[in-house]
Recover the amino acids of this structure.
């Protein structure tokens, strides 16, 4: 589904990604872990086309298409989604109206029927149950005045509405209490399908107890230093990141 | 050089005998007018608002509208929520046949200003600072308008609708409306007031609104200026808020070829004021807001958020003066001017003006002129909206933000549709 080869990227001329290779197939859940400032979030943002980053080398294909030939909105309509760590507030635009617009733009792109406001109302009422969101949040302005946890809830609601093929979730657990984390983790699991894939970016292994990856990668200094199965997350929980960095410094990768 | 009033194209309006009532008030206004021509851009207060367009047409006092035609014309402007609490003015004249006050609670008094005697001493005494040319014109020659009195501790649950409809004359002259409003809330009273101006064609409207909010009273005031884009609208508002009283207003300017809002608010001890504004302009419109918030006594609070969205060759002007008087300690005043330019030729001149003469205060102000936030644009694009849709949606949101708390649902909805249409966001479907 997603194939990343020797990807390098920089922000304001400073290299942040220094050669990333990663393959994600349908049905897979991958976790990218690493210390702060390692380039984890950058990888996600580069993939979804954030304008602050410049791709300086390498190639990425998504479902066989050159990802970098697509604009951010085209990537979204092609089925790529990122749940952001710090979602933006958009005053004046109601959450429900925005969700309907986003849903209909994707439906239009896929040749499906668009939903009118009444149909969408039924549709969204089902979806908010999945993330245990109160209905009043639909009428409020998009993310405006939402707490950190409410914003995360809204990100996963958007994921539920857009049903992406590949969802990248950046630090989903930040700002969430344990109960909310479980609710959103369960929601993400319910949205997972054999034809979809997940890339979970996280500093703390906690979220991986709910969303269970088959592959765990440690990213540091803009490179993937180590890739292994879920047992790596357990080890990182116990030992932290330093040993991976030391191991990499001593002997290169693996 | 002080040109005589004859130099003003509005001098015809001052011809003839002075209307009855408020003799001293009118004489003083007339005396001031006699010494001045129409303001020009050489004057500091009019630096950016060029009134050259007023030189040329013949201005005449507006004629009362024919009652039978007015009724049907009025229907589109009636809000179901305020059906039984509406007062309609056509061409500045109170239209009793189109009005309905059965929904007002007992004790609330509403009557045409022609029925108010000079005993109504408040008139002309409220607010501070020197009147401008157009306010003086109103004071000198107003004949129409209304007085609204809310007695002590009466909370009016239903909003009151003041609807002003204006029409061009059809004979090449420019009809001029000079409506005068006096709104007085006694102690502990509460009222929600919706003041709406609509019109067609070319005319000049110079409303003057005087407001007194007594101790502990609360007035919420929605002011909607939807004049025609050929019209001239110069409005003055003067409010005095007594101890612990609250005055919250939101002024939304959509229409007018040339327009000015000139609110002046005086806050007594512990009084609160909100003075929010939106100007949504396009074509060759010019809209000016000159506000004056005076914290005359301690412990007052004020919030002012002024937004302008300017397209085409339009121009917005904001001059926001906040004064904290000596001794007005523990004042909390915040002002924000935020402006969005949608075209190369659009223009905004914004000037926050804080004058603080007390030391224990919390005052802030900020002004930003610019384009849309790239992070917001990216966020919407990341959800599949193409760049144009994302821009239109954000522009809509920037303006519609000020509509969210309008208490009348049908009004809120109709204004959202207007903003949708004016921000090219209508193609995005029904966001209202």
């Amino acid at each position: 589904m997603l194939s990343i080869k020797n990807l390098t990227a920089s922000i304001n001329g400073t290299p942040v990604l220094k050669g990333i290779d990663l393959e994600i197939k349908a049905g897979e859940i991958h976790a990218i872990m690493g210390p702060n400032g390692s380039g984890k979030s950058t990888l996600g943002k580069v993939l979804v086309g954030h304008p602050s980053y410049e791709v300086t080398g390498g190639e990425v294909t998504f479902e066989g298409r050159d990802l970098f030939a697509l604009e951010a909105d085209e990537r979204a309509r092609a089925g790529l989604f990122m749940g952001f760590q710090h979602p933006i507030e958009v005053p004046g635009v109601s959450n429900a109206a925005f969700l309907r617009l986003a849903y209909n733009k994707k439906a239009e792109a896929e040749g499906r029927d668009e939903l009118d406001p009444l149909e969408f109302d039924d549709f969204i009422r089902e979806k908010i149950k999945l993330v245990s969101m109160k209905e009043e949040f639909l009428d409020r302005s998009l993310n405006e005045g939402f707490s950190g946890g409410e914003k995360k809830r809204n990100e996963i609601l958007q994921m539920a509405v857009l049903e992406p093929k590949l969802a990248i979730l950046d630090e989903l657990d930040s700002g969430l209490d344990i109960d909310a984390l479980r609710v959103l983790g369960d929601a993400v699991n319910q949205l997972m399908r054999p034809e979809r894939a997940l890339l979970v970016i996280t500093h703390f292994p906690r979220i991986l107890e709910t969303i269970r990856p088959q592959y765990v990668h440690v990213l540091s200094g803009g490179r993937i230093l180590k890739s292994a199965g879920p047992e790596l997350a357990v080890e990182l929980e116990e030992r932290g990141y330093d040993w991976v960095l030391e191991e990499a410094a001593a002997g290169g990768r693996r | 050089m002080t040109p005589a009033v004859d130099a003003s194209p509005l001098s015809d309006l001052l011809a003839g005998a002075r209307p009855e009532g408020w003799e001293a008030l009118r004489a003083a206004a007339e005396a001031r007018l006699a010494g001045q021509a129409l303001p020009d851009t050489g004057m500091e207060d009019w630096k950016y608002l060029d009134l050259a367009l007023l030189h040329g047409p013949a201005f005449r006092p507006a004629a009362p509208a024919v009652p039978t035609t007015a009724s049907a014309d009025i229907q589109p402007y009636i809000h179901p929520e305020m059906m039984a609490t509406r007062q309609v003015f056509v061409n500045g004249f109170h239209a009793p046949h189109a009005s309905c006050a059965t929904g007002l609670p007992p004790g609330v008094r509403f009557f045409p200003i022609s029925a108010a005697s000079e005993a109504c001493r408040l008139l002309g005494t409220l607010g501070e600072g020197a009147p401008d040319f157009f306010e003086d014109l109103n004071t000198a020659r107003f004949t129409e308008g209304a007085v609204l009195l809310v007695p002590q501790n009466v909370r009016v649950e239903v909003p009151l609708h003041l609807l002003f409809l204006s029409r061009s004359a059809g004979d090449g002259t420019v009809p001029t409306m000079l409506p005068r409003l006096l709104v007085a809330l006694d102690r502990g009273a509460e009222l929600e007031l919706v003041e709406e101006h609509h019109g067609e064609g070319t005319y000049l409207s110079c409303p003057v609104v005087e407001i007194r909010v007594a101790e502990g009273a609360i007035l919420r005031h929605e002011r909607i200026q939807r004049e025609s884009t050929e019209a001239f609208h110069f409005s003055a508002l003067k409010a005095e808020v007594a101890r612990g009283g609250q005055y919250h207003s939101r002024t939304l300017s959509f229409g007018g070829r040339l327009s000015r809002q000139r609110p002046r608010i005086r806050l007594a001890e512990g009084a609160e004021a909100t003075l929010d504004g939106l100007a949504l302009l396009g074509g060759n419109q010019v809209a000016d807001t000159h506000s004056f918030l005076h914290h005359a006594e301690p412990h007052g609070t004020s919030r002012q958020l002024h937004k302008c969205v300017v397209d085409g060759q339009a121009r917005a002007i904001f001059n926001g003066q906040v004064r904290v008087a000596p001794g007005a300690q523990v004042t909390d005043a915040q002002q924000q001017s935020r402006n969005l330019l949608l075209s190369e030729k659009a223009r905004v001149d914004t000037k926050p003006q804080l004058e603080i003469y007390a030391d224990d205060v919390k005052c802030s102000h900020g002004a930003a002129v610019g384009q849309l936030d790239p992070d917001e644009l990216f966020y919407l694009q990341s959800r599949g909206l193409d760049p144009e849709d994302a821009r239109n949606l954000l522009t809509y949101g920037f303006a519609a933000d000020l509509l969210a708390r309008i208490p009348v649902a049908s009004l809120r909805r109709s204004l959202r549709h207007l903003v949708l249409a004016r921000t090219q966001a209508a193609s995005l479907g029904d966001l209202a």
